[in-house]
């Protein structure tokens, strides 16, 4: 049976209404695809805590996790992901790619110009639709 992995990811918006997008490196799982930064929820932490921890570890900045905007499952070849995407507010610092190949800020109406991890596609469509 495939394992289900619970992953939190953040939609971080800047003052120009651009969204932070992160490129998974060739050494990561699901390589060379774009994602909302975040990661797996560990035991003994809630979803907000997990997101705030992951963003600090991966991007060296402090965020406050907000409302959940997407919560769905997607079946990959090797595992099932429960992807929970939350709004996030940058509190301190500037995001720096410590583990990703790079990070970029994209206007919402350009989000579909990059190749997203398959589990993210419905969320990207939802975010773009809400912005129309
Ligand atoms: N952070 C994040 N991960 C995502 C997204 N969409 C998506 O399919 N994923 C997948 C990629 C990874 O397989 C998993 C997140 O785990 P992780 O960020 O801790 O990745 P990792 O490279 O340490 O994981 P792994 O190699 O041990 O599998 O969820 C997303 O938007 N954000």
TrEMBL record:
Keywords: DNA damage, DNA repair, DNA replication, Hydrolase, Magnesium, Metal-binding, Mutator protein. It catalyses: 8-oxo-dGTP + H2O = 8-oxo-dGMP + diphosphate + H(+). Its cofactor is Mg(2+). InterPro entries: MutT-like, Nudix_hydrolase, NUDIX_hydrolase-like_dom_sf, NUDIX_hydrolase_CS, NUDIX_hydrolase_dom. The keyword Magnesium applies. Pfam families: NUDIX (PF00293). Residues 3-130 form the Nudix hydrolase domain. It is an enzyme of class 3 (hydrolase). PROSITE patterns: NUDIX (PS51462), NUDIX_BOX (PS00893). Its EC number is 3.6.1.55. SUPFAM superfamilies: Nudix. GO terms for molecular function: 8-oxo-7,8-dihydrodeoxyguanosine triphosphate pyrophosphatase activity; 8-oxo-7,8-dihydroguanosine triphosphate pyrophosphatase activity; 8-oxo-dGDP phosphatase activity; 8-oxo-GDP phosphatase activity; metal ion binding. GO terms for biological process: DNA repair; DNA replication. PANTHER family: 8-OXO-DGTP DIPHOSPHATASE (PTHR47707), NUDIX HYDROLASE FAMILY PROTEIN (PTHR47707:SF1). Belongs to the Nudix hydrolase family. This is 8-oxo-dGTP diphosphatase. It comes from Gracilibacillus halophilus YIM-C55.5.
């Amino acid at each position: 049976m495939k394992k289900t992995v619970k992953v939190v990811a953040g939609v971080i918006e800047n003052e120009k209404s651009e969204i932070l997008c992160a490129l998974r490196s060739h050494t990561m799982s699901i390589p060379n695809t774009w994602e909302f930064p975040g990661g797996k929820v560990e035991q003994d932490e809630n979803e907000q805590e997990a997101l705030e921890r992951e963003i600090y570890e991966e991007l060296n900045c402090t965020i406050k996790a907000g409302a959940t905007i997407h919560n769905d499952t997607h079946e990959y070849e090797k595992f099932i992901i429960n992807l929970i995407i939350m709004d996030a507010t940058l509190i301190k610092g500037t995001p720096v790619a410590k583990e990703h190949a790079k990070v970029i800020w994209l206007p919402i109406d350009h989000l579909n110009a990059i190749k997203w991890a398959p589990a993210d596609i419905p969320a990207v469509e939802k975010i773009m639709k809400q912005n129309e």
